[in-house]
Amino acid sequence: MPSTDWTWTHARHLLNRAGFGGRRDEITSLYRLGLDGAVDSLLRPTDRRLPQPDWLAEDKTDRRKLSKEEQKENQKLNRQRQQTLIGEWIISMIETPTPADMLRARMTFFWHGHFATSIQKVKTPHPIFAQLELFDAMAVGSYSKLLHAIVRDPAMLIYLDNTRNHRGKPNENLARELMELFSLGPGNYSESDIREGARALTGWGAGPQGFRLAARRHDSGEKTILGQTGKFDADGFVEIILQQPACAAFMIRKLWQYFAGTDPAPAVLGALAAGFRASDYDVRLAVRDILRHPKFYSEAVRGNQIKSPLQLVVGTARTLQAQVNTPKIYQRMLTLMGQAPYQPPNVKGWPSGRAWIDTTRLVTRYTFAEMIANGEIPGDVDPRRRGRRRGVQFDPYPLVNDLVAPEEIIAELTNQLLTVPPTDGEHRLLTKNLQQDLAQLAAPAAVQQAVGNLMRLPQYQLC
After folding, report:
1. By CB distance 3.0 to 4.6 Å, which of 111, 165, 227, 451 could disulfide with 171?
2. 99-114 and 8-18 helices cross at what angle (nearest 10)?
3. In angstroms, how far is CA 194 from the centroid of its own chain?
4. 204-245 pLDDT, tens digit each
5. What are residue 169's DSSP bridge partners?
6. CA quadruple 143, 148, 149, 154: dihedral sign
């Protein structure tokens, strides 16, 4: 995109897709940097770490040594710790201090969806947190190194049953998903490649202290995988995968879909994939090339992505700097909307697009808008505390500054919070409602209602 074509609206689009949206000052700062400078600022290294659980340093007890009663108590404690861990992760995304931290958080979640793992099967918190730290540390690092790391990741090894993958009795789950979902895509390997790949993965498992290689369970014999023959282990298997041209194209397609919300044109895919492979799978460079690409800012891309529950909930809470009496409500909303972290529907991760707005989930999204507008958490959202009034508050002043005229306030709110503008009729109704609320409520409460009304528009579901 020529620098002369770069606008404030493009900067807003960049923050919507590379982060969770942005406040006016953040959008303006990116706009002033120009396209290349804005993208580079998003990709700069950050020092922020994930919240560190207080139980992290505790001994990882082998539960086989516990009594049945102790095992039951330990399972209950582990479930509580996992839920707390996920809740703290959500809050850390909401509290990302800079756009660069937002992009890192977005990429951390991308890898979580790409290498989907579930707490319903990985029942202890230590491997879940170790995996989350891996994704955070390598958010925009080397995909090659990350793919090597994932075949050593205890959570993944447990989730895809590689702890049961032994010489003479291979389990094919990890080998299949490693190629189909994590690197090559369907049609780029054979059933024989799966069987032989599973043999390469034998003996790679997990124990109480983390990754464990059981040498006596590993099949050290000769294998033929994707046309190459040798005594390959898991690392050799991964190296063969990385040599396939389909690998770079598969990953670029997924990254483009994640940020752009569409399939890339063949020419775009080919050029980006070639650059990704030439860089030895440098994710930072791949994301940079995507976010700088003119097609990423085209009319076909802007305003045409349905927000995932994470984008909707985290983006709203962060942009409004909302304060809630019960932070767990965000976790509850994501669950109701169908995207609770570490609870994907299956190994493929979450769907996207229109799958997010079936009848039930759309109602939940409007309930979220009601919660913001009225400042109260409905009892049907959190039935365990039905009847207790718990507020949602935010300071509207940073959104509207010194504006006092209802029409100007609505214009400013829609400019910041909507990618697709309201119709003239919607704009008039929003303005009329704000005029009426200002006559009856204090100005902050009236503007809060206006934000909630704006969130009820179909356009708010798009970015």
Report:
1. 165
2. 40
3. 29
4. 999 988 999 999 999 999 999 999 999 999 999 999 999 999
5. 166
6. positive
Domain ranges of the chain: 1-18+28-42, 309-461
Q: State the Cα–Cα distance between residues 277 and 283, nearest whole angstrom.
A: 10
Cβ atoms of 93 and 20 closer than 8 Å = yes
pLDDT tens string 245-299: 999 999 999 999 999 999 999 999 999 999 999 999 999 999 999 999 999 999 9
State pTM to two decimals.
Answer: 0.96
Residues facing 166 on adjacent strands: 169
Burial 219-249 (b: 16+ CB within 10 A, else e): beeebebbeeeeebbbebbbebbbebebbbb
**Cβ-contact 269, 260 below 8 angstroms:** no
Query: Rounded CA gap, 126 and 128, in Å?
Result: 5
28 sits in which H/E element: helix 24-42
Which residue do the tokens 């992505």 mark?
305
- The Cα 243–Cα 254 span in angstroms is 18
411's tokens: 């214009």
Residue 127 CB-half CA count within 13 A: 26
pLDDT given for residue 59 in this prediction? 66
Residues in contact with 154: Cβ distance below 8 Å, sequence separation at least 6, in sequence order: 127, 130, 131, 206, 210, 211
Cβ atoms of 141 and 150 within 8 Å: the answer is no
Alpha carbon 206 to chain centroid, angstroms: 26
**At a CB cut-off of 8 Å and minimum separation 6, what does 429 contact?**
none
Asked if 429 and 407 count as a contact pair (C-beta separation under 8 A), the reply is: no
